[in-house]
Design a protein that fits this description.
The complex is a heterodimer of chains A (562) and B (322). With 562 residues, chain A is mainly alpha-helical. Chain A is built from 23 helices and 10 strands. A two-stranded antiparallel sheet of chain A has the order 1-3. The longest helix of chain A has 36 residues, at 2-37. Chain A starts with a helix and ends with a helix. Chain B has 322 residues and is of the alpha/beta class. Chain B has helices at 7-31, 69-79, 113-125, 141-147, 150-157, 186-190, 211-214, 230-240, 279-289, 298-305, and strands at residues 49-50, 62-66, 92-97, 130-134, 160-162, 169-173, 181-185, 193-197, 199-203, 207-209, 241-242, 245-254, 267-276, 318-321. Chain B is elongated. Chains A and B meet through helix 9, helix 10 and helix 21 of A and helix 4 and helix 5 of B.
Amino acid sequence: MARVEKTEKASGIWTRLRWARRVTQSVFLLLFLFLILATTALTGARIDAATSGSVPYPVEAFLDIDPLIGLIVALSTGTVPGALIFGLVVLGSAAFLGRGFCGWICPMGTMNHAVGQIRQPRQGKARIDRNSPRPYNKIKYVILIGVLVAALFGSAIGGLFDPISLATRGISLTLLPWLNWIIGGAIDFFAESNVSALQHISDVTYDAVDGVVVYQRGFLVGGGALISVLFIVVLAANRWIPRFWCRSLCPLGALLGVSGRFGALALHKDHDLCNQCGKCQLDCSGAAAPRPGDRWQRAECDLCMNCVTVCDQGALSFRLAGEKSDEQALPDLKRRTVIAGAVIGAVAIPAMRTGALGSVEGRPDPARIRPPGAVDEKAFIERCIRCGQCMKICPNNALHPALDEAGIEGLWTPVLVPSTGYCEPTCTLCTQVCPTGAIRRVTEDQKIGKNGARMVSIGTAFFDRGRCLPWAMGTPCTVCEEFCPTSPKAIWMKEEEVEVSGRRVKLKLPYLDPSQCNGCGACEYVCPVHDKAAIRVTCAGESRSRTNQLLLGKPARKKEQS
Amino acid sequence: MNDSWNRRRFLNRLAAGCVGIAGATAAGILLRDEGRDEPLSDPKAVQVRNFRAHMGSSDEKLVIANGDPSGATRAAIEALGGMEHFVRPGESVVIKPNIGWDRTPVQAANTNPLVISALVKMCLDAGAATVIVTDHSCNEPRRCFTRSGIWKEASNAGAVVVLPAGHRFKTHDLGGMVLGKMPVLTAAVRADRFINVPVAKHHGMSGFTGAMKNLYGVLGGRRNRLHQRLDDSIADLADFIRPTLTVMDATRVLMRNGPQGGNLGDVRSVDQVIASTDQVAVDAYGCGLIGLKPADLPYLAFAQERGLGTADLSRIPREEVS
């Protein structure tokens, strides 16, 4: 009798802990979503002109505390940039709590967890089967090793597989553009209706979501469909195997799992009390084999507290000192598995760099226009984790995930696409949100080059005189000059006499001074030759590069100074 | 399962079939494409928006007020007879500044926010029901509205600041020489009174941009083609919109590198606000501030030919106040 009371009391603790886990997961997921929505400029009726260029919240916080990102950048650059130190703190905490981060905090984990709850099989057998260890769950260790070896070779391409980066990219670059399309479309539809009540709803809705969900400059994402499909596949996989991503593929999960090798917390199994009912396996979120008689997989357990909560017998409990004999502390990795991962990482990076165009080693692709403040391409690839924050915050929808502009290795790194949007002259938002220092912080004064300092240039504009209205067609036009933001303007007009269909007319013709051009792309964006502009920007002359220069008098000294 | 037909089943199917056919017919009638020209979104769209209608006639004059932005604005309006002369109680007023560029007030590419807030307060004091401040920016609108300082100052003064969202434009027939059917910012043309509040500055193509060129800001769509016949299109616009009042901010004037500027070296402190009911005269005076003559601006002559005002400063009385 006394024993039963004790059991009930104990299970009460686990129930409370499970609720604590659920609340924590929800809070962190909501915080994550809030920070993504807050990844926008500070604007509005209450904002002073002077503070409008700043970002109100530490919107990159989740990326900062991600230990995998910290480790990748540490390995690729030999330094730990600023906020990423928090990631190494989280890594230290994993020594006590193992994959507790996955079960309690990770927003990607929580989303997978939530989708995995939808329409679970009623049958206990099928549910136990879904939540049992699988041999392919070891793939994540291969990915982890590959990612870290790639980092040693100077590539942060591992960011493609990092769960926080995946979630940020997935929501910022697919979910939000969808919402922009759907809600923006609904607003337009109601506004067109000629019913004043509906028009009023349109107006009120618009003012509530403008700049957060609906963007005046649109929200298109180059190659966004590919990002969408992969993100949906990751989420949909939970339908068949809950937390498939977390269990089988996630390199951060693998890192935290092996870091918990000597973890203080362990699942204690009391074989005498266990009646082998199997309930503990029904909802094991990590497929970590909690049933007494099986060996508990320490590196898979994300401390979800489901097994200890449902155990009627009180046979399971988390304690500080576990029975080491009943657990598997490290995953059972064959040597060939480890070698396979290392070889993949070691072969992939040099292979991708043999590409002639766009790769780090080759000539730059003309369309590889990086955001202002981006470090030199080699250092950029060492740091960019493809999280998409810079693309989300760009107020002009100018930054897009690269497909082939930066070589295969540069997949989904940011490039500026002037035909979609241009770099706002005084905006420095993207430089404020980059978590890894791939885009260095640049102030407005530094960007426009105040007090004799050299401005930040991301490229150079070139006229296509065969398409230009004044040059090719004798038609007056000056829109590129009007929008040119530099002072003095890089685009200047000269009145000349030209012949049009046998008549001689006086006309202002546009010219470009490359030493004044910052490559912002405003000219290309506003050119009335709508399909393929008569002035186009390429990355030539970008101030971050020492080699990609046009003019002798325009050398890049940035690197030597730092 | 009973698959056999009975009366009930037959009648149900018959009714369903009739409903389906009727629905398809109705949809067909409603959605029929007659292959005609797209009708105007707003069939009642007035071609000329004359915001001076129902106003007592007054002698036209050009007022030049010297002083700080707020004080000079008030002095200029007082010299014209006070805001009560232009705005009647219960009317809605739209104030159209230049909020074109992502620039701060000191750079003088947008209208000074203090000029706007002074006008908003005067309109409200005169009994205006609502005062709307709006413009179609060139750079990203949220940044332009914030960094120009106008969003904050105008809101604090009691105005409704309307962002130029896509759904707020409707196609109008401007009926001009160059400007035909164009999307027009609805908020700007639906009000009872329209006060145009440009900033005087240099412009690479037209030479000078002030009152008439500022009306570009009510247009949407692909404005970038209008530059092919800039002077005609400016005159067309001035023909389409006849503002109640034009108040030009010349407190700080961008002398070069317009219309965006960016370099404080290009800006000169003039400390003037110019006001008149004649928008052509305002421009004729304003271009002198950057060293041009009215004859340098073809659109002034075009506007005068159409009877929109006078480009000859000797033909309009001038009053200097401070």
